[in-house]
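Thread: quick sanity check before group meeting

JM: Hey all, I'm pulling together slides for Thursday and realized we never actually wrote out the predicted structure for the chain we discussed last week. Dropping the sequence here so it's in one place. If anyone has concerns about the input, flag it before I start.
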Amino acid sequence: MELTEFNSAIEKLFRFKTDRDNNHYQYYKFDEIEFRLKKKLFRETCENLSKLNSIDGYEIYNSKTYEVSLSHNNRIYYGGQEEICKEDHVNKIKYSLGIPSNEYLIFFIKNLFDLANTEGLSRPIMMYRLRNRMNHSEMDTSIELFDVLKENIPRFKTLQIKSENEKNLKDFETNSSSLLFTIGFNTDLSFLPTNITEDFGRAVRIGRIRRARIEDIEPPKRKYQQDLILFYQKGISAESADLQFLSFYHILEHFFEKIYNEDLIKSVQDKLTAPSFSYKRPKDLNALVKTVQDKLRYKNEEFQINEPEALRLVLDKFILDFQEIKDEIGTYDSNLLDYYKTEEVSFSLANRVNFDEDRQVILKNLRERIYKTRNSIVHSKDTDKTKYLPFKHDRELSKEIILMRIIAEKIVIGSSDEL
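JM (edit): ok, ran it. Output follows.
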């Protein structure tokens, strides 16, 4: 990344104005506060970054170093520490969880700048923390730009691993998972690898189909079912992709039994009131019994509904017009509709969905895509060929989450009443 491109990124993403420079420093301004970047440090950082590899946009590595961004729900670290450092003297590995390296900072800014140019990012990501800091503390012109960005980009933490022995990417990912489990097991602190650029991008895309500013929001005009709101809030706040998906799925599942039973009752009523039905004919009675048997299964001393069919009925009841679903998906990401049309979900082998087909075909394929993906998350047995693996499949699952969120929102709204 050249300095001129970096300056353009800083201006677009953070609203820092490029100011004067000299042989050693490039200066920037935010309001009346000036920051500086040492040109030699920038060149060295970019040179180091050029020697690192990246596959999915959130890990950088070579044979002896590895760094990945993390999501977390922890207000403070254990013991009030801002950084967790551990050293494995036996295997000659050093772990550092906390402030990202200069290389990862540049890596993130470059990726986010590319995303902003393609996604039409119109607002800076810098939040109020920097402005508040300027208002409540004295800052001089010697403050370094890298330090400011690391401290003020929201939720920006990484795990760095350094090894004296050469390792491949899978080895580093194993080391990463092992450390995060060890921390969680001993301290109840939760850290998950995440694509921080995608996290920001998701917020940008959602902003396109929602009113993003608090001042634009009006008081509620409808009353919503509280259980559904709890699942919805859990879905939009969850850090892990699988929990997001399942939280939105629970909104659909909430109506399974009610709507399925309503459909069963209607089927029985249709049979009983048909002009050809006679309770005196065993053939007609057997057909009625078969209708009930087909709808219900007796297992573990209780009757169970057909969940895939219940899911189809819920979708059919609450999605009145698939064009609305198409419009919202297209506004979020214009490529997603083609993706659903042409791609299965690889880890669940879930059906393709073409939203331009007949309604009943859409309902069938949409049901299969949702239900198979749900099963691959919930039933992840070691012998299963179609199972979801956290971290490995998160990027792919994120494409399904937006579909689930839009459907869940239709159900929350469709089941509400006027205040």
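AS: nice. Residues 394-414 form the longest helix (21 residues). The CA atoms of residues 26 and 37 lie 5 Å apart.
JM: adding both to the slides.
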